[in-house]
Design goal:
This protein has about 110 residues and is mainly alpha-helical. It is built from three helices and no strands. The protein is elongated and about 70 Å long. The longest helix is centred in the C-terminal third of the chain and has 49 residues. The chain starts with a helix and ends in a 5-residue tail after the last helix. The chain has one domain: Flagellar protein flit (Methane Monooxygenase Hydroxylase, Chain G, domain 1).
Length: about 110
């Protein structure tokens, strides 16, 4: 099991990474955002199954809750920036798919 202080440190690291993800999303720096998300996922895996609030003191539980709230707020901010971009990608891919279907259906020829 992770040491309780180590758990808090991992949550603090996740919070730091999520703040960097917000900045990457604001800059439309998708490559950095993806790399940072990978790092957060690795931390999340380390915490999975090891998270035991019963072993945390009151101050540690409060700190953990505050860190999780910050991560969730950052996630909402990231989505605010990424969802419009994702919609553009969906429309682009949907348009390309429709064009392919029309070309296949009507036997479009390239000139």
């Amino acid at each position: 099991m992770l040491a309780m202080q180590n758990q808090i440190e991992l949550y603090e690291e996740m919070t730091s990474l999520s703040a960097r993800m917000v900045e990457a999303a604001r800059r439309n720096d998708w490559d950095s955002l993806i790399e940072l998300e990978r790092s957060v996922s690795e931390l999340r895996l380390r915490l999975a199954g090891e998270d035991d609030n019963g072993r945390l003191g009151m101050g540690e539980r409060e700190r953990k809750a505050a860190l999780i709230q910050r991560i969730l707020a950052d996630d909402a901010e990231i989505r605010r920036h990424t969802e419009p971009w994702m919609e553009q990608v969906r429309q682009f891919l949907g348009g390309a798919r429709k064009k392919r279907q029309v070309d296949q259906t009507y036997g479009a020829h390239t000139a």
